[in-house]
Amino acid sequence: MAEERNKLTIPDLAARKRAGERLVMVAVADTLTATWAWRAGVDIVGVGDSLGMTVYGHENTLPMTVEQMIAHTQAVRRGAPDTFCIVSMPYGSYATRDVAVLNAVRLMKESGADAVKLQGGREMFDVIKAVADAGVPVMSHVGLLPHYVHRYGGFKTQGRTAEDALAIIDNACAIEEAGAIGLEIEAMPYEVGKAVDEAVSIFTFSIGAGAAGTCQLLNGYDLIGGFDTFKPKFAKRYGNVAEVATKAFASFFCGPRPLSPTRRRGSSQSEKAGYRALVVSSSVTDPTRPPVTHTATRAPVVSE
Question: Is residue 303 part of a domain?
Answer without folding.
Answer: no
